[in-house]
Amino acid sequence: MPKTDPQVLADRYAALWNEPDAELRRTGVAELWRADGVHVLQPPQEMRRSAVELGFADPVLEVRGHRELEARVRTAYEDFVAPGGLLFRARADAERLHDVVKFHWEAVDTATGEVGGVGLEFLVLDEDGRIRSDFQFIEN
After folding, report:
1. The domain containing residue 129 runs over which residues?
2. What pTM does this model have?
3. Domains held by the chain: number
4. Is 92 part of a structural domain of the chain?
5. Is residue 1, in this structure, part of any structural domain at all?
6. pLDDT values of the chain reduced to their tens digit, one per residue, 140 residues
7. In the 3-class helix/strand/coil scheme, how is 91-113 assigned residue by residue?
8. What is the CATH number of the domain that holds 25?
9. DSSP β-ladder status, 100-109 and 86-90
């Protein structure tokens, strides 16, 4: 397995969610994730609570493959970054243990510089250093 620097990977990952160019986002998804890669998001607590109240037993969001991953990144960009409200950045805490990279990311308010949200990411890499599984936890 390539010795991917975990902080470089975390920074590239976070930067992708801020990318305004659709073609560069598509290329970034293909470079970071393997073709059958999966992104699994545990939504924030209030969203999980609402989903359970609506009868969803397992309120976890999951996308698989480049097409769905591109849509997920595009939607996050359009909802949070494009309106000028937030930018995503990786914290300088990325660590690697065998084929797993973990790091925190922040959603930063572009007007104030305040951190508006924090997430924890676990990336499971394949033998080529691309993301096989991506587990995202919104912490606040």
Report:
1. 6-138
2. 0.89
3. 1
4. yes
5. no
6. 567 899 999 999 999 999 999 999 999 999 999 999 999 998 777 766 776 777 766 667 889 999 999 999 999 999 999 998 899 999 999 999 999 999 999 999 999 999 999 999 999 999 999 999 999 998 87
7. CCCCEEECCEEEEEEEEEECCCC
8. 3.10.450.50
9. antiparallel
